[in-house]
Fold this protein.
Amino acid sequence: MKTLRICHLYPKLLNIYGDGGNIITIKKRAEWRGINVQFDELNSGEILATEHDFYFIGGGQDTQQIEVSCELQKNKDFLTQERDRGAVFLGICGGYQLLGHYYQPHNGEKLLGISLLDAYTLAGNNRFIGNVTELTEFTEPKSLVGFENHSGLTYLQGETKPLGKIVVGYGNNGKDLTEGARYKNVFGTYLHGSFLPKNPHFADYLLELALDNKLEPLDDTIEMNTHKSLVTKAY
Ligand code: GLN
């Protein structure tokens, strides 16, 4: 089995509401299967030049997004090549917004994203806060659970499809009942929590895409009991 090469994008800037737990989950679920993991970080001022299998970018407030928006532009071409090579990306909330074309806050300049997703985000007038349950077509069970806290309204276009359909919560914009996004192996979601520990079936789905290999199942009894206890839980 090949080594899983992980790159955490701007962990010092975008890493709120425990989003770093997603990295821990991906690393552990690989290591528990005896898969070697190479872990790198990309921080401000650095330029990416080596391929990775799994890229992660967490959430953050508008202020941190301003700096990351500028930094990401320096790596846009390389990350676009990585997307087109089939690398897996997972972006959470503010990080998700910057995987699209732009995030337009209430005040100030439009924050440019890197257009890995055909999506854009406009500042909303309300904060969407609370538990989320959605149904995705990518896994069995179809349920995904987490917690959202954002004012941005995200709209999907072209070949970029939703990650799931909302059952409980607001999702991308509180109107079209979509949540998150997928194009090729680039995934975005508003689900904090952390997202992957509460959805181990989706964590394995991303791992299998990143390794391009089917994996032996783990004993997820405890994790899935926790997951099931949260499905359709509004508060
Ligand atoms: N600042 C963005 C918004 O409020 C993202 C917030 C976040 O990452 N939780 O929509």
